[in-house]
């Protein structure tokens, strides 16, 4: 199973969770942006947007998803995550 680590973005003041889809063969081809829900233990991330990834380079995929996240945060006027585990 091939996968890339999920991460909170932006670093230091997380507002969204970026999750890459695992693949049986090849690199991930999909990623999701999510917001933390009200459930703290265990933490629940609600998927808000899905994106296709057209690169085999993880660093490039992160740059692409960070740009999507910046747009998403700006469009929704999302503040700091409160109660993030």
Any chance you could write out the topology, listing elements then pairs?
Elements (H helix, E strand, L loop, with lengths): L6 E3 L6 E5 L9 E7 L8 E8 L5 H19 L9
Antiparallel strand pairs: 1-2, 2-3, 3-4
Low-pLDDT sequence parts = none
Q: Say how many strands there are.
A: 4
Side-by-side strand order of the widest sheet: 1-2-3-4
> What is the percentage of strand-forming residues?
25-35%
3D structure, described in words:
- Strands 1-2-3-4 form a four-stranded antiparallel β-sheet.
- Helix content is 22%, strand content 27%.
- With 85 residues, it is an alpha+beta fold.
- The mean pLDDT is 85.
- It starts with 6 loop residues before the first strand and ends in a 9-residue tail after the last helix.
- It has one domain.
- β1 (7-9) and β2 (16-20) form a beta hairpin.
- The chain is built from one helix and four strands, in the order ββββα.
Describe this protein with a few key phrases.
27% strand, alpha+beta, 1 helix, 85 residues, single chain
Short overview:
The chain has 85 residues and is α+β, with helices and mostly antiparallel strands. Helices cover 22% and strands 27% of the residues.
